[in-house]
From TrEMBL:
The gene is mlaD. The keyword Ligase does not apply. This is Outer membrane lipid asymmetry maintenance protein MlaD. Signal peptide: none annotated. Pfam families: MlaD (PF02470). Keywords: Membrane, Transmembrane, Transmembrane helix. It comes from Paracoccus cavernae. InterPro entries: ABC_MlaD, Mce/MlaD, MlaD_Phospholipid_Transporter. Residues 41-118 form the Mce/MlaD domain. It comes from the Bacteria. The chain crosses the membrane at residues 12-35. NCBIfam families: OM_asym_MlaD.
Length: 158
């Protein structure tokens, strides 16, 4: 005979597995919901000097709204720049002077690529490269520059 404690453990374990399966299903449905809602997509590229925090699956956003995901990140052996490839729904036609910036979701948040559409009359075609880019900014580097500038200012004061 099983005791009441064993039955309770069984039901709690079953509930934990059901919740985990629900979260798994929810995470997969969220990634395909954007593609389903906006239809087919096309590939674009951008070459950054630094892609710290960007990897396949990273969000692509326009005006803070998620419109795609990074599909690949690789090093160009000729230019030594990191090339990110990503998909944008065909319903979103970006001007050819669109800028791509690597942004951060705060101090502890992850990174994402923010696209800032320009005002050019012609649009980017599938496979085109976004020329106007800004790579990732390292928080440690910024802090070191600040500390260095403060110590330099202190040394110059009589």
């Amino acid at each position: 005979m099983t005791s009441a404690a064993e039955r309770a453990e069984f039901w709690v374990g079953s509930a934990v597995i059901a919740v985990a399966a629900g979260f798994l299903a929810w995470s997969f449905s969220g990634s395909s919901a954007l593609t389903t809602r906006l239809g087919k997509s096309y590939e674009l590229r951008a070459a950054f000097p630094n892609v710290d925090g960007i990897e396949p699956g990273t969000d692509i956003r326009i005006g803070g709204v998620k419109v795609g995901r990074v599909s690949a990140v690789q090093l160009n052996p000729e230019s030594f720049l990191a090339e990110a490839s990503f998909s944008i729904p065909q319903a979103i036609q970006l001007p050819s002077d669109t800028a791509a910036l690597i942004q951060s979701d705060g101090l502890l948040g992850g990174s994402y690529i923010e696209l800032q559409p320009g005002g050019a009359a012609d649009n980017l075609a599938p496979g085109d490269e976004i020329e106007d880019v800004q790579g990732a900014v390292s928080l440690i580097t910024l802090m070191m520059k600040f500390v260095d500038s403060q110590s330099s200012a202190k040394d110059e004061t009589p």
